[in-house]
Specification:
single chain, about 90 residues, mainly alpha, Monooxygenase, 3 helices
Length: about 90
């Protein structure tokens, strides 16, 4: 079982990296003032990722989950802020 835990830990760490790569095209478009993100979706995703991140900070004692949920929250927040900046 320790090997399975190691594989899952490495795979989950990869999720954080992959999510940054996945958010990049949307962030790049928004930086170029090209509206390519759904505001309602990103409002919901930002709230849910904020809750996950806060849960990781105050309830769980898991550094990797804190990092990965923090990456998701940060990326969603950046997208949402860029959407608002374009819409101004």
């Amino acid at each position: 079982m320790p090997l399975l835990k190691q594989i899952l830990t490495i795979a989950y760490a990869g999720v954080g990296l992959i999510s940054l790569i996945a958010y990049w095209p949307t962030i790049r478009d928004l930086l170029a003032k090209k509206p390519s993100a759904n505001t309602a979706s990103y409002k919901i995703w930002t709230v849910t990722t904020a809750i996950s991140f806060l849960y990781s900070l105050f309830i769980l004692d898991d550094l990797l989950f804190r990092i990965v949920s923090g990456i998701h929250f940060f990326a969603c927040s950046i997208v949402l802020l860029l959407i608002y900046k374009i819409n101004k």
